Automatic annotation (TrEMBL):
It holds the Pfam family TNP-like_RNaseH_N. This is Transposable element P transposase-like RNase H domain-containing protein. InterPro entries: TNP-like_RNaseH_N. Residues 1-88 form the Transposable element P transposase-like RNase H domain. It comes from the Eukaryota.
Length: 88
């Protein structure tokens, strides 16, 4: 997992606005959501080879450790039924 600062900016691509907080859990398309200033990224890293795979990224204004734990558990629960062997 990794967290990184991002530029606060909202952009409209003709269909939807990109830039507000988005944790991926059926958030409303409300224009009142603030712009995200941080991205929390979850990666799979191969132990026997040299590759990394992004499995999710979440735009936020800062996450607590409990929120990060919930997001990690959700991602792990999606990997297990697809036969992805997560060691640690």
């Amino acid at each position: 997992m990794d967290g990184m600062s991002i530029r606060q900016q909202a952009e409209f691509d003709g269909k939807e606005v990109h830039g507000p907080i988005n944790l991926g859990f059926n958030e409303s398309d409300d224009d009142s959501l603030p712009s995200a200033k941080e991205a929390f990224v979850l990666l799979l890293v191969c132990m026997k080879s040299h590759w990394k795979l992004t499995i999710g990224y979440f735009l936020s204004n800062g996450l607590s450790s409990c929120q990060k734990q919930t997001l990690m558990q959700h991602c792990l629960s999606l990997l297990y039924p697809n036969k992805v062997n997560v060691v640690c």
